[in-house]
Amino acid sequence: MKRTATANWQGNLKAGKGTLSTQSGILDKTNYSFKTRFEEGEKGTNPEELLATAHAGCFTMSVASILDKKGLSPDKLDTKATLTLEGLSITAIHLSIKGSVKDMDADAFAAIVKEAEQNCIVSKALKVAITSDNELLLPV
């Protein structure tokens, strides 16, 4: 399986701008620029935000997969990925997940989260510190 994305850029680094598109079409000429990457207040995305999004999605699916293998189905899983950019280096990503899973205790959920943190496809592709925390909610 291969996935593709395209980037277009026009102009110099600080005044220039570009667009990003994905094979699926979910991103279709989405704006990105120096301002959307390093400053606040302009509508658009940036590579770090997209990486955090991909990691949050992959990690959450990994938790669901591990639960499924244990015969459990979550009522809900919500993840926030916080990517740390220091200078021109991504130094860490922290994954914070809240989940509601019937017949699960907090220690078992924490163990599943730790396994997913280390083994989701995006985690394995990155060479930065990855941490996580979790909160098991009561099923609704």
The CATH homologous superfamily of the largest domain: K homology (KH) domain
Give the strand order, joined by hyphens, for the main sheet: 1-2-3
Number of helices, where a helix is a run of at least 4 consecutive DSSP H or I residues: 4
Q: Provide the number of structural domains.
A: 2
Beta-strand content: 35-45%
Q: How many strand units?
A: 6
Spatial extent as radius of gyration: 17 Å
Coarse structural class? alpha+beta
Largest sheet geometry: 3 strands, antiparallel
- Architecture (CATH level 2) name of the largest domain: 2-Layer Sandwich
The dominant shape is elongated
**Straight-line distance between termini:** 37 Å
CATH topology of the largest domain: GMP Synthetase, Chain A, domain 3
Could you characterize what this model shows?
By secondary structure, this protein is an alpha+beta fold. It folds into 2 domains: 5-38, no CATH class; 47-137, K homology (KH) domain (GMP Synthetase, Chain A, domain 3). Helices cover 34% and strands 36% of the residues. It has 4 helices and 6 strands, in the order E-E-E-H-H-E-E-H-H-E. The chain has helices at residues 34-38, 47-69, 106-119, 121-125; strands at residues 5-10, 17-22, 30-33, 74-86, 89-101, 129-137. The protein has a 3-stranded antiparallel beta sheet. The protein is elongated and about 55 Å long. It starts with a strand and ends with a strand. The model has no long low-confidence stretch (mean pLDDT 94).
